[in-house]
Amino acid sequence: MTNKETGIHQENGTHLIPDAMVPPNKETPPATENLRITPERDVWGNGMEFVLACVGFAVGLGNIWRFPYLCYKNGGGAFLIPYFVYAIGGGIPMMFLEVGLGQFMSQGNISIWNICPIFKGIGIGSTVMTAMANIYYIVVFCWALHYFFACFGSSLPWASCGNPWNTVHCLDIGSNRSEIADKVTDPAVEYWELMDNLVLFFVLARKSRNRVLGVTNGLEEVGGLQWELVGTLFLAWIMVYCCIFKGVRSTGKVVYFTTTFPYLMLIVLFIRGVTLPGAMDGLIFYLKPDFTKLLQSQVWIDAGTQVFFSYCVAIGGLVALGSYNEYHTDYVRDCTIIAIINSSTSLFGGLVIFSVLGYMSFVSGIPGGIYVFQIFDYYAASGMVLLFFILCECGAISWFYGVTRWSNNVEEMIGRPVNLWIKFCWTFFTPFLS
């Protein structure tokens, strides 16, 4: 039978979708015109698998590292005001839109744009952007594996000075360096700076003092391969393949560990961090509000890019994950849970990190210690390209396909009308924020 409001024809539980959609000011085409059956597709074993997969996909360094840094930089607790404005007016509505598109069409990031074919370039462009991001994001995993294996040695290579890669400025952890802070470095920092510089899939290292970052004097000095990192990089890709090679049948089971275990580690680190001397000083640094910062436009820009980046919108991942939902899954409820977990992780991650930074400041005699964070802000995959795709997605669905028609489609799936605020955000507010 055919639902007259949505134009979706159903037979034996399978929904048929028109390949081409007419402009929103015309009647929905009858289900007999130019229809195709959506391809057979695996589905999540249960709703928990979908939620955990989305949390595991969205929550990452953007939450644990970049959010605390931006919060400190942009007024402490006052930064939460622009952050939640962008989350409620931009991040959450975009999550609703993308997961809904995937669930409605039961297809991936490119094919979903059969709903509005003129905008198929959005899917292609965001897929290319995701592929490029994966190339350097796997490097973080590579570094983590290297540190993991290094922990099994007789001594930690970053725990003390005296290693071949250390400089004369290295000073052991615990030494008070307040009077010579600009002349000394930590052994852990030197170890980090001395290991890896990845260009595409090749890990490069400097001949002498580089041990983790392989810093050279420039691109003209690429250095040689750091074979231990080549090995961890290869292992990282093998592990990724093993997690996804059977689709949601394997991914849905893996996420029970890969998503929950990091939270267990965060809780352990938080308990340890707040019991250290100086931890409260770090937390005050993190949350003490400075409302005068809200008058600076850069604070609002940072909040917007942080929300869109940490919610992982406009890069196709949420579309793909949503496409494995059952057609009548209440994805709006699930996305609300995911958004709450995402933002809560950002806040909690900041408590963990700054409690430890407060301790670092206490034992070293250097106020703050926030300089450690500045390198991480450089690696944030946010910017004008991401905002451009968000604008295009909202425009394609709200202005060309029609926000009313899309709202009817969502109502067909979840069984209740779309909130007026969400429709307003899809049409006006989110494009304005982007």
Automatic annotation (TrEMBL):
Classification via PROSITE patterns: NA_NEUROTRAN_SYMP_1, NA_NEUROTRAN_SYMP_3
Single Gene Ontology MF annotation: metal ion binding
Alphabetical list of Pfam families matching this protein: SNF (PF00209)
Annotated Na(+) binding sites: 56, 58-59, 63, 310, 342
Keywords attached to this entry: Disulfide bond, Membrane, Metal-binding, Sodium, Symport, Transmembrane, Transmembrane helix, Transport
Highest rank taxon of the organism: Eukaryota
GO CC field: axon; cell surface; plasma membrane
Cysteine-cysteine disulfides: 161-170
Annotated transmembrane regions: 50-68, 80-101, 122-149, 229-248, 260-287, 307-324, 336-359, 379-403
InterPro entries reported for this sequence: Na/ntran_symport, SNS_sf
Topology class, membrane: Multi-pass membrane protein
Cell compartment(s), UniProt: Membrane
Family recorded in the similarity comment: Belongs to the sodium:neurotransmitter symporter (SNF) (TC 2.A.22) family.
Listed name of the protein: Transporter
Native organism: Tigriopus californicus
Organism phylogeny: Eukaryota, Metazoa, Ecdysozoa, Arthropoda, Crustacea
